[in-house]
Amino acid sequence: MEYHQLKYFQKLADIGNYTKAADELNLSQSALSRSILRLEEEIGVPLFLRKSRGVVLNRYGRIFLKSVNQAIMGIDEAKREITNLVDPTQGSISLGFIQPLGSSYIPDLISAFQKENPGIKFQLNQDNTRNILAGIESGEIDVGFCSPPEEREGLTTLHIMDQELFLVVPKSHPLSDRTQIDLHELAGDSFILFKPESSLHDVIAKLFQDAGFRPMMSFEVYDERTVAGLVGANLGVALIPFFPGLDKKKISQIPVGKPNCSVSNQMVYQTDGYISPVFAQFKSFVESTLNQEHE
């Protein structure tokens, strides 16, 4: 059973006359008759009742037409979606990003890109690095902005920015007036940590390992705003990236000397995967933006 057979059947069911249907389909009447006959043979029952002035659907044909209409509608919709994906002016991009990049970097990047490409849409997915990489590998995500801990076979990475992590302490903390601090000096403090599913969890765990101690945990949360709020309430200290709106009336933000506390954020996509025209435009835009920043 082929797509064109379904279209022929649909047309004949609508018009009810072989000659008129064949004319609209640009077929000979005999070609249309043979196509319908093969379709009926494949299904195993006749689909039409022959009348003196044409044909009408029988009860099998009426049942079959419902499914044919749904199938053709689904196929046509899929074709439109695929056309949109490959249309360099009207497609969509599935983009995954980690939470620390969601406050300004990703919104600003998309806004700048859409000023030049207003017809291109984005499907956004905020998640941790592990899940974003899995989504890229499976093809569910076109491009990810995250912090992979190491190179991964089959994936291409492009460094976009290093994000510094600061120590945040309550204003009442004895070290709140310091202009710089080494992480090991806080070995006796209780830390507010990120949950394992957070993109920062593994990065910060490695920093504690480099500093030579295992932190005492007071709370474990998902996002840096909640972390900062808990620090401001004198419930612990923490390592977080800077974000707009950080309330410095209640907390102090201190740069860390040792170890180097920063996160390397990357743009990630499949090395040998299909690159749609819209994603190719976006990738080129990101690369051009980075080149301008480095000039």
Can you put this structure into words, describing what you see?
- With 295 residues, the protein is of the alpha/beta class.
- The chain contains 9 helices and 11 strands.
- The chain has helices at 3-15, 18-25, 29-43, 59-86, 105-116, 129-138, 201-211, 224-232, 277-294, and strands at 48-51, 54-57, 92-97, 121-126, 143-146, 155-170, 190-194, 216-221, 238-241, 251-254, 262-270.
- The strands form 3 sheets. Strands 3, 4, 5, 6, 9, 10 and 11 form a 7-stranded mixed beta sheet that branches.
- The protein has 3 domains: 3-86, Arc Repressor Mutant, subunit A (Orthogonal Bundle), CATH 1.10.10; 95-157 and 270-294, D-Maltodextrin-Binding Protein, domain 2; 161-263, D-Maltodextrin-Binding Protein, domain 2 (3-Layer(aba) Sandwich).
- 42% of the residues lie in helices and 23% in strands.
- Helix 1 (3-15) packs across helix 3 and helix 1 (3-15) packs across helix 4 (59-86).
- It is elongated.
- Strand 7 (190-194), helix 7 and strand 8 form a beta-alpha-beta unit.
- The mean pLDDT is 89.
Query: How many domains is the backbone divided into?
Result: 3
Based on CA inertia axes, which overall geometry fits?
A: elongated
Kindly report the oligomeric state of this protein: single chain
Helix and strand sequence: HHHEEHEHEHEEEHEHEEEH
Helix content: 40-55%
CATH architecture of the largest domain: 3-Layer(aba) Sandwich
By DSSP, the count of extended strands is 11
Structural class: alpha/beta
**Beta-strand percentage range:** 15-25%
**Average pLDDT, all residues:** 89
Largest pleated sheet: 7 strands, mixed
Q: Do you know the CATH topology of the largest domain?
A: D-Maltodextrin-Binding Protein, domain 2
Unreliable stretches (pLDDT < 50, length at least 5) are none
Quote the distance from N terminus to C terminus: 59 Å
Q: What is the number of helical segments per DSSP (H or I, 4+ residues)?
A: 9
Rg, nearest Å: 30 Å
At the first level of CATH, the class of the largest domain is: Alpha Beta
